[in-house]
Amino acid sequence: MMSAPAELRSVTGNTGKLGQGDIYDHTVAIPPMPDYNGRILAYTATAAIIVTGVLQDVFPQLLLWMVAGALIWPHLAHVLTRRTFLRRSARIRQKMLFLDCIIGGSFIGLIGLIAIPSVSVVLMLMFSCLIVGGVRQWLFGTALMSAAMAATVAATGTAADLEAPLLTSIVAILATGTYICVTAYYSHQQARALLLAKTQIQNQREQSIALSHKLSKYLSPQVWQSIFTGERDVRLETQRKKLAVFFSDIKGFTELSEEMEPEALTELLNHYFNEMSEVALKYGGTIDKFVGDSIMVFFGDPTSRGQKEDAFSCVSMAIEMRKHMKIMRQKWRSQGIKTPLEIRMGISTGYTTVGNFGAENRMDYTIIGKEVNLASRLESLAEPGEILVSYETFSLIKDRIMCRDKGEITVKGFGKPVPIYEVVDFRRDMGPHRSFLEHEHSGFAMYLDSDKVTERERKAILSALEDAADRLRQEDDTE
């Protein structure tokens, strides 16, 4: 006469955005009581009520035919919903439950609204409606049941005595209680399974977040973000884009590698890469790769602020790297590394091919093209501490960054000699108002970036400079 909660369901968690975080796909079987078994239980309970009522002369003998119908209908309903065209019908479970409500209402009308058997059937129907479809299903089910009940009562009338004998009432109560308890048990099992599924999904989500963060260490943050937010597909594809390409290496690193132990050299190199990577990310650069002591960075993909801004950010990054290298060199000197390490850099701007290269099972997100070769060549030609840029880059930054003409060079892949320029500094930092000062001599080194000095640090620096000046004056007086 009614159905139980649901057939086997699955709970699937799925998200395609790494940061938030996280990619996972997990299916958990939820084992509620199937419709078939629930309908058999409900109609068997109703058949027991009918038989008891007929034996006690509460119901007319004619209702015995409904016993056969109650025992056959669950199997027939199962066949109709699983073996025929009805299986393709949307919300077939709810529709079959509506039919159960009509049958139940008709039965209540046929028994003449005898109180306890009628209430028992109503409870089973309403319980099923609330579990299967919520309040909406309950409202529609109640309306259909009431309509069927009213129509049947209008045709057959009510019973002379609405009170049922004790045995019939007991059987009706036991049958209804059994149905509700069994259905509630399976609902409880379903709730436990849902809780377990939620816990498993949460655990897998946390594992996926941790894994995605580990994988992000092997990719530039911009590339990782575009992949894990679904903006970029992981497949072999490339495109032509105008990018600013940066190369750098350390002058003197080869000599240093012959003097230092491999472990100490590795620690120094990792420290250098870590510091320079933070500078690159600060300006929005996409870190392509580390090769030996070289760094390759490009601007303009996967995100771009326009060709001019990309080129300016790239050169700004290079200037800050040069300044930062001087500070790091002083720190290394205090650690006993006397080899003067200098960074040299080359920057080119132009059209390159950018995207995923390689095989389907092993890809590398990188760029190729003659502008990449030009940037690499400029880096190899640069003097220690020098930043060389191509004419295209110079034309995009010249209004904000002072550059010096360095003539022309011949580069493979370019039909004509390529004009190159040396980056001097930001125009705003030129002259007496510049923020960065440096003085380096034997026994003395000073690097001052006044824009980064706080008020408290300024007092300490002034005190240290005054002490140093007093010391130098005392030595002059002694001499």
Describe this structure in words.
The chain folds into three domains: 9-210, no CATH class; 235-434, Alpha-Beta Plaits (2-Layer Sandwich); 436-479, no CATH class. It is 54% helix and 22% strand. The chain is built from twelve helices and twelve strands. Helix 3 crosses helix 4 (115-156) and helix 8 runs antiparallel to helix 9 (307-334). The longest helix is centred in the middle third of the chain and has 51 residues, at 166-216. The relative contact order is 0.08. The model is unreliable at 4-32 (pLDDT under 50). Pfam families: Guanylate_cyc, MASE2. The chain crosses the membrane at residues 40-56, 62-80, 101-126, 138-159, 166-186.
